[in-house]
Amino acid sequence: MSKPYDFDLIVIGGGSGGFAAARGAANGGLRVALIEGAQEMGGLCILRGCMPTKALLHAAEILHSPANGKIWGIDFPKPTVNFEVVMKRKDALISEFASFRQHQLANSKFKLIRAFAKFSDPHSIELSTGGSLSAAHFVISTGSSVGPVPFPELEKIGYMTSDDVMKLQKLPGSLIVLGGGAVALELAQFFARFGVKVTIIQRSEHVLRDFDADSAKALEASLRDEGIEVLTGTHLLHFEKSGESKRVTLRHEDAVRVVEAEEIFHGLGRIPNTESLHLAAAGVEADHGRIITNEFMQTSTPHIYACGDCTSPHEIVHIAIQQAEVAVAHVLKPEMHKKMDYRLLMNVVFTDPQVASAGLTEKQAGDLRIPYLSASYPFNDHGKSMIMNVKHGAVKLLADPKTGEIIGGSVVGPSGGELIHEITAAMAKRMTVGELAAMPHYHPTLAEIWTYPAEELADQIKT
């Protein structure tokens, strides 16, 4: 790298993607600076996303488990909850994770600069603390934040977001959850298991619109079994406050209905943190704030790259890290032509049952006109899961109808987020359904359920 600039590479944003980019570039011998202006360092995953929510969900799972004891002839006394201790445990874990990341940021080969940044031209940024810096290359990794609500009435009466849940000191008596995505559903179940009366309101016909309808239906059935009201195919009409309660008027099944609760949770999505970057000054194009990138993670200004929630349609930590690695590889050795490959894309929703997919769903294969055969097998007819009293869910495999290569898999069931990795591993090695069916699986285990759809497809394809 030539040295007319202050740095070879400047990374804007210190979350998972930004840290991976800075570390990779510095290890590759570049002069690197990482700019992070947030009061707390660590990024969304550690501070307000993946890790704290999973800590709360695990607490809810422990609380919920005794409720099933009677099936086995075991009668537990009703557990008591100290919500303050639940939140303190979560805070202690997050403090530990964040401290480790902060140590990494402060003690790496790159220079950490505590400030916000905005572009003044394609090679220069201004710092909120004063002064400016220049670089030959940039990686933007500024993440996302909770999006604004599209309803002025709701803004007026107030609502909770996932950020607010992380600071909650007292549980509401009842809750309306707006949205049917992963965060909304995970937290809806968390609240319900802690005794909150929960109603989920979803605009589309099913929750989890990125998954196949059969996966969504299985999860909806399980949530309803727990006493959560799930309203799908709705149209929101009106929000108002009535005394200590909040009301949502909606149209559902050709009728107008009013749902009332103590609090409303806004789970309608997130927006990229790009507004303050002055992207236009650098010639970086964005679509509704989301930075447009190519397969090398280059923006419309080729020496500026982006990774993570600010660009990706997939707001997933391991994808942000992969994107960062691709961007840095292209800076260091563009002749390698290392590209982003979403063939092994995974999604996991940490509800109970967990919902997960790898590769293509049937919906995606149909939209892309990719030929496939599919087969599924239910957990309620599988030995180990029957022992566990699993009532809902199934596994499903998609295969190329000519070669038998596995092109996708999904699961709704116990430990679904763990089970899906078997399909990812199989797809990484481009295994056929015949090879998966022939692979030894210990009995009785949850994992052996994959052999049933694999065998069915192998018989059809003769792999």
CATH level-four homologous superfamily name of the largest domain: FAD/NAD(P)-binding domain
Main pleated-sheet profile: 7 strands, mixed
Beta content comes to 15-25%
- What is the 3D form? globular
Walk me through the structure.
The chain has helices at 16-27, 43-47, 50-64, 83-106, 152-157, 162-165, 182-193, 213-225, 317-332, 362-367, 383-387, 416-428, 433-438, 451-461, and strands spanning 7-12, 32-35, 111-113, 117-121, 124-127, 132-140, 144-146, 174-178, 197-201, 229-231, 234-242, 245-252, 255-261, 263-266, 270-272, 286-287, 290-291, 304-306, 346-349, 354-359, 373-378, 394-399, 406-413. The protein is α/β, with parallel strands linked by helices. The strands form six sheets. Strands 1, 2, 3, 4, 5, 6 and 18 form a seven-stranded mixed β-sheet that branches. A five-stranded antiparallel β-sheet has the order 19-20-23-22-21, with helices on both faces. It contains 14 helices and 23 strands. The model has no long low-confidence stretch (mean pLDDT 94). The protein has three domains: 7-146 and 271-336, FAD/NAD(P)-binding domain (3-Layer(bba) Sandwich); 152-268, FAD/NAD(P)-binding domain; 346-461, FAD/NAD-linked reductase, C-terminal dimerisation domain (Enolase-like, domain 1).
